[in-house]
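REQUEST FORM: STRUCTURE PREDICTION
Request ID: SP-0412
Submitted by: Lab K.M.
Chain count: 1
Length (residues): 134
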Amino acid sequence: MAYLLLVIIVPLVAYTVWSVRRVTEPWFDDAPRHAWASARASSADGALARLEAEVTYRITDAGVRSPEDQAAQVGEDALRRAIVTGRVLSLPGIGDEVALGSDPPAAGIAVDSVVVTAADVEITRELRRLVGGP
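STATUS: Completed
RESULT:
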């Protein structure tokens, strides 16, 4: 009788401990996700530029709140930095990847890439003067 109880109880206890441990461990899907970002600013030579980009990111912490908003913010910061620090001829075009910079990463997410999907440049008088236009 004791052997029968041992054969039944030990596996049952082991399964219960395993299943409880499995449920209490944080779980999250770390598959790549996509967010959208846009930024509008003046370039270093006076052109008003607007860039839109697709941000690819992964969740790295199960408790992260609003990961899409955080990824979009990282993308907007990268786009704005690319516009403000670049001249009109060096602005990223459609399909170009924008550098993320050295800012500390957003908590709970890892941004893999920021790829430009739309780019507009508004010609200003200052830009015309710089390039020698009428």
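NOTES: Residues 2-24 form the longest helix (23 residues).
Reviewed by: T.R.
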